[in-house]
Write a structure and sequence with these properties.
two-stranded antiparallel ribbon; globular; TIM Barrel; 2 domains; single chain; 13% strand; 11 strands; alpha/beta
Length: 380
């Protein structure tokens, strides 16, 4: 022992202790920072390990002919059984099920850490793995529909991720719904984590909707963080991010875009262009509902009454962007609801025929109330 400086060891002991304590504190701060930045690697790992029946390859490609279902419909045994009966007696072979809708809530029992921390899930589907297994037993292709940037519940519970208003606070659209910022990488990460979980649960495809900037409400008050980039450049970066993060997953990736993307290539102020998406995902689903085209489109006073003309024009103009060298195929959403005209079987069939005239990528029928019949469909 150093008898000349008995306090030296004490000073050294205090110094080492402080260094050790500060080191732990710094490491803990990094863990917290990573958590706030949505680093979900451990969460994803645990989710994947819990599901022992995980696919390891994408399903065989097929010409998908599908219908949309809400989570409530998907969670109803009676409704699902009737849908299975319809599919087995017609040309239909697929369903699109909401797993995250316009509300932003996760509609199944998600185990994503942040989802549970924020309390942003409402399990309307029930046992989603069993549902998918049941549908697969009937050779039905199962698509998960996931809204992205229209996410009111995330925007309100994490206001730092929300689109802001020049008037202060969160900006809201004409329906009073808040949106998350399309430029925020944390929002991108959050949605990729959810998509990976859905793939682990057995979905064959993830269909991303609301992959755009908002289109209605008081747009003069919106605060965007795009910097020097055009909105369509931001969206291209997001599509490319999905490609990088999900292309090796055992499921296909698709995007819902406005129907007008087949004809317009200016971004339409919402950031959607075909040329920015066709090399990044597997399928593009333009929402080509004839009732959504304005009066005077193609010289038609009521485009909804002339679905064949509307779809023919859109497909003809959009198809040059889908070539043998591009990754994506086109698979449009078609109208199966009454708006602008009564959508009888003949109007539904007119849309399908025009899509199949140009592409074998398939088509999807939309009816928000999930009321479907064999009208307009080929029967087996």
């Amino acid at each position: 022992m150093n008898t000349k400086h008995p306090q030296l060891y004490f000073i050294l002991f205090i110094g080492v202790s402080l260094f050790f304590i500060l080191g732990i504190s710094w490491e803990w701060s990094l863990v917290n920072y990573a958590h706030e930045d949505y680093v979900f690697s451990e969460t994803l790992s645990s989710v994947s390990q819990e599901n022992t029946d995980v696919k390891n390859s994408k399903p065989e490609k097929r010409e998908v002919k599908g219908i949309y279902l809400t989570a409530y419909s998907a969670g109803s045994t009676k409704k699902i059984d009737s849908i299975i009966d319809l599919i087995e007696t017609t040309e239909l072979n697929a369903v699109v099920i909401d797993i995250k809708d316009y509300s932003g809530f996760l509609l199944y029992d998600s185990q994503v850490e942040l989802v549970n921390e924020l309390g942003v899930k409402q399990n309307r589907i029930g046992d989603v793995s069993e549902l998918i297994k049941k549908l697969h037993e009937h050779d039905i292709y199962v698509i998960a529909r996931q809204t992205v940037f229209q996410d009111p519940v995330l925007a309100e519970r994490r206001t730092d991720l929300a689109i802001k208003s020049k008037a202060g606070g969160i900006w809201r659209d004409q329906n009073g719904l808040a949106w998350v910022d399309p430029t925020n990488r944390q929002v991108w990460d959050y949605n990729v984590v959810i998509a990976r979980e859905a793939i682990d649960l057995g979905f064959d495809e993830i269909n991303f909707d609301y992959v755009r900037f908002p289109s209605d409400g008081n747009m003069s008050l919106v605060v965007y963080n795009t910097g020097d980039k055009q909105r369509y450049e931001v969206m291209h970066d997001f599509y490319a991010f999905l490609n990088t993060e999900l292309s090796n997953e055992p499921a296909y990736i698709s995007l819902d875009l406005f129907g007008y993307v087949m004809e317009r290539h200016d971004g339409m102020s919402i950031g959607q262009r075909l040329e920015d998406s066709v090399d990044e995902v597997d399928y593009i689903s333009p929402m080509m509902y004839p009732s959504h085209y304005p009066s005077g489109h193609l010289g038609l006073s009521n485009p909804a009454a002339h679905p064949g003309v509307v779809i023919d024009n859109g497909m003809q103009k959009g198809m040059p962007y889908f070539t043998s060298s591009t990754k994506a195929e086109v698979r449009p959403w078609l109208q199966a609801f009454n708006m602008g005209a009564v959508y009888s079987g003949s109007l539904i069939r007119a849309q399908i025929d025009m899509v199949e005239k140009y592409s074998d990528g398939g088509w999807l029928l939309w009816n928000a109330a999930n009321r479907y019949t064999s009208a307009g469909l080929k029967t087996l």
